[in-house]
Design goal:
40% helix, two-stranded antiparallel sheet, elongated
Length: 302
């Protein structure tokens, strides 16, 4: 039994969409590819593919297994190159997770530039405000807000996240600009879905004292960009990270208040599974991300 031959056959079938095309790519008989995939599924005890006259489709488990196989084959090629002293170009799959607001505005341009400079690199980017299982999902690393307490993960700070209170200028014209947190009580909140009462916000005064203010929830969502868009539309007040609001504030579509008060503060971190080091390709891209924030965050200098 050659497990790598099984994996290589499976990957070829997934990427070409048929056993005949996979056999042509691997320069073997169709029966050999079919046998190897059958043996792989038998060994794992799961169906990875569905075959029909129209071609081959992967099952949900097959798609997840395919991602792991890509990492395995890429890491094996990296190991061979490092052992031979001929590393060559960066190649292989880089799988990342990050919040959508950060990913669309900052990570995506970096990934595009990196992919253009490294033609043999592939990206698989999962954008979600909810933490994903990095180990089960086969991720190289994630960008997350807040300190990770998971001992199966290793983290490093990337940049400080500051939250701002913002609404449209028209909203403040109508309801008045607050001079203290209590002035927000009862106003429409565009609140991020967290905790039992997402429209109850905590502030730290300049003297260090804290105060909780209850707003009226107008829109509750688990995505910051949705809330910022609602604030621009004049529907209420948002409490969001500065990197999410920056473009709208700079354009004058949002106006911040209570700048001498602190709300929630945390770090954005690069988080990766502790059980394995980053591959060469993932480490080089992580360095690209680190460089963007090495001196100051882009929204602090633009």
């Amino acid at each position: 039994m050659n497990r790598f031959a099984e994996i290589e056959a499976f990957v070829a079938v997934v990427e070409t969409g048929s056993f005949s095309a996979a056999a042509e790519r691997q320069h073997v008989a169709i029966s050999a590819v079919s046998r190897r995939v059958d043996e792989l599924e038998a060994r794992l005890g799961v169906k990875l593919t569905r075959r029909s006259t129209r071609g081959v489709k992967t099952t949900e488990r097959g798609r997840a297994y395919y991602r792991h196989c890509l990492r395995l084959l890429s890491d094996l090629r990296e190991a061979d190159s490092a052992a031979s002293g001929e590393e060559g170009p960066v190649r292989g799959l880089i799988r990342i997770a990050c919040p959508p607001a950060f990913g669309l505005r900052y990570l995506s341009p970096l990934a595009n530039d990196f992919a253009a400079s490294n033609p043999e690199v592939q990206f698989d980017i999962e954008m979600s405000d909810r933490p994903v299982d990095l180990i089960e999902g086969g991720f190289d690393f994630a960008i997350r807000l807040g300190r990770s307490e998971d001992r199966t993960l290793t983290s490093e700070p990337l940049f400080a996240v500051h939250y701002v209170v913002a609404a449209s200028p028209a909203f403040w014209d109508q309801y008045g600009r607050p001079s203290k947190p209590e002035d927000l009580a009862g106003l429409s909140a565009l609140a991020y879905r967290v905790g039992p009462d997402p429209a109850r916000w905590r502030f730290s005064r300049p003297n260090g004292q804290t105060v909780d203010v209850q707003l009226s929830p107008r829109i509750v969502a688990n995505n910051g960009t949705v809330l910022v868009d609602a604030a621009i539309a004049g529907l209420g007040i948002c409490l969001e990270p500065d990197f999410v609001c920056h473009d709208a504030i700079k354009a004058g579509a949002l106006e911040t208040v209570l700048k001498d008060h602190r709300t929630y503060g945390r770090d954005a971190e690069i988080v990766r599974p502790a059980v394995r080091p980053l591959s060469r390709r993932a480490e080089e891209f992580a360095d690209t991300v680190r460089e963007l924030f090495a001196v100051s965050a882009p929204w602090e200098t633009s």
